[in-house]
Amino acid sequence: MSKTIIVSNRLPVKITEQDGQLSFKTSEGGLATGLGSVFQADAESLWIGWPGMEVPDEQEKNVTAQLNEQSLIPVYLSKEEITQYYEGFSNEVLWPVFHYMSTYARYENIYWDYYQQVNEKFKNALIAVAQPGDTIWIHDYQLLLLPGLIRAVLPEVTIGFFQHIPFPSYELFRLLPWRAELLNGMLGADLVGFHTYDDARHFLSSAARILQVQTASNNIQYNGRSIVVESFPMGIDNAKFEALIDNTQVKQNILNLRETFGNVHIILSIDRLDYSKGILQRLQAFDLFMQDHPEYKEKVSLYMIVVPSRDTVTQYRELRDEIDKLAGNINARYRTNNWSPVNYFYRSFPIENLSALFQFADVCLVTPMRDGMNLVCKEYVASRKNNDGVLILSEMAGASKELTDALIVNPNNVLQMSQAIVAALNMPLEEQTRRMKQMRELVSKYNVMHWVRVFIERLGEVKRMQQSLLTK
Ligand code: G6P
Question: Which is the most buried residue in 31, 96, 177, 302, by most CB within 10 A?
Answer without folding.
Answer: 302
